[in-house]
Each structure stands twice: as C-alpha cells, then as structure tokens.
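A note from the maintainers: we've had questions about how concatenated examples are separated. There is no special marker in the raw files; a new sequence line simply starts the next protein. For clarity in this README we add a label.
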Amino acid sequence: MKIEEFVGIFASALDDLDADEVTAATAFKQLAVWDSLAVLTVTDTVEMECGVLLSGTDFAAATTLEDLYETVRAKQAR
C-alpha cells in the first residue's frame, strides 16, 4: 500500500472530511473533525482495510498521517 492509498482510507473514514483536504503531512489531530468518534471510526476502517489494529498509543505517538501510515506498515510486517 502506498501513502496516497492510506490517506484516502483515512479520509474516507471521516464523513466530514474531503480527501483533497489531507496529505501525508497533515497533522490529523488538528483537524476540526478529529474527536473521540473519529478515533474509533479510523481505527475500525484501518483494521478492515489494512488488517491492522491501531491502539491509543499508536495515535498518541503519531503527529501526521505519514506517522500513522508508518505504524500501519510496521504492524503489517510483523
């Protein structure tokens, strides 16, 4: 999976987010739509699409979508 695909997966998980609004460098915690429901929705979508379960620690350690992407890739490699 490429980073662009992951960004698309992230954007598709959040109804109020236009895919054109986000890039790999987006600080996702700063998005207006980012709240506790968004965490759950993104977690579920990433698990379904990528086969990886992100934890609260994973989200806390990440700043950008690229950080999350790298976490997903590392977990897929295990």
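[label: protein 2]
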Amino acid sequence: MDDLVKFLVARINDDNHAYAYVAGTLGGEALLDSHLPMLDLIEQLANNYKAMGPSDSRSAGLAYALRVLAQSYAEHPAYQREWCP
C-alpha cells in the first residue's frame, strides 16, 4: 500500500505542476479553481493514511478509497494492476 500512496502523491504533484503551467500560460483559472482543491484533498487523504497505524479502524476504508482514486491514473506506466480495488 505504501507504493500506491507514493504513486498517488507523485501523480497529484505532477497534476499540480501541469495545472500551474496551464494557468500561467493559458489563463486557466477556472480549471485551477475546480481541480486544485480536489487534488489537495486527495493528497490529504494519502497523508492521513500514511499517519495511521495498522490497527486504526479507518485504514481499510481509506485504503479502498485511495485504490479507487488511483484508478484515474491507470494509464500511467507506473500504475500497478494489483492496486485495483
């Protein structure tokens, strides 16, 4: 699961950089307003998962949610099929 969390955070960082480029060069503030808060929340979930102990009753549900969210990057070459929920 650690690999999935690292993968997801890396993709979010890539997306943040891409959106910043779009906003800076093409004036895409609407895109930023709609997507950046969502990316921040997904990153927060990933960080919360990393901070949880294995005995935390929320960890299984959060792990499932992260697997579902990671599916949006399934076409990325580093995505691993065993991460599918």
